[in-house]
């Protein structure tokens, strides 16, 4: 499916273009002077957020400015600029009610996230196809994926299914059987972020999920607090630069790599 | 106690000086052109190793070259250039025998490491006194501590006792009551490295130790494999640069900080 750019702005060395691929709205960030073969970082947004959520945009711009990467985000089904289905609305209402009443969220989140992932994984694959057709990307650019909470519920099955994704950061995700099943098929290098004292995500299930990833290279990063505030700046391990980075990239000082 | 330098060499931008403080032999690494107020990184060596073990030297030189830090290491009691006491030899023999016979190491390591820590903590404090008396360091330079295995068995009580240490990386350590008790008194920012599949260190006790650190800012980094090969290069989070770094330090490119 074709990718159509709808807007373009440029600031602080970052070219920011909105795009649409059929009904999927997205954003594509690029260095003003991208190196040939620069890696592409796919960025999933958290539950209830969207492709231009401030935290996501900050990480995307950092990847562009600091690492010379391209970055892309799309709205998940029912998020951002996309209409929410009646069924999704029922799940959201049930989740907010359970949260307000301090009841377990898992019985709602497991089927909701499973359904989201079933819809979103094919959309990400179409998005990869479309981005690879851009001259800036092409078929050879290394591709990584980063996303917490629902973006991990989507990203873990995506990484299990999609060999073009070479490295990923996940975390803060509700664990249910479909996620565990997908994680057992993930073999790429991963980092996994675990909120240590989350009121909603139990620690033990996160440790189990980390354990079952089939990746030979995997690192667990656990930190105090909840999944609402992931301290990505404090646990930046320059993972994607190591996994995807190309030394001759313009703008990347070798001593930073 | 006075610090006496015994040798000095210089290569690749690093000045390497051996020193002695009474019976404590050490190494002090510095940038050829150190910035005033450059931080000091104290580096403990692992069990059976010494102040010039290759992994330690590589990390020390990286701290000097990349971050503009000073770094220092000393031999733990009975290690490196220091004579091993009869009691320490008994513990070492018992440990090697238990390892060869695949028996639990904890009953030997707990008293051995406790004794080492009781001797080594005061030595590190004397070393800090002596290093602070050097004009390159002074009383104000920020100080960090990094060390795995026995260097954590020593470093955790050291960090609990010594307010001059402002940040630390620990890991791969046998957990017994004295270590837990000290960890509960550690309040500085820490990173804690946990080998996920160690044949000798059980995962659960490592998770318990991470949990009890009183530090508001703490991060657990878990990775496949054993404590014999800590992938420090793969989980480099530029922790000390964030915790101790001074932006105006010579040689530190701001975009790396």
Automatic annotation (TrEMBL), chains A, B:
Q: Which Gene3D superfamilies match?
A: alpha/beta hydrolase (3.40.50.1820)
Q: What is this protein called?
A: Alpha/beta hydrolase
Please name the source species.
Microlunatus phosphovorus (strain ATCC 700054 / DSM 10555 / JCM 9379 / NBRC 101784 / NCIMB 13414 / VKM Ac-1990 / NM-1)
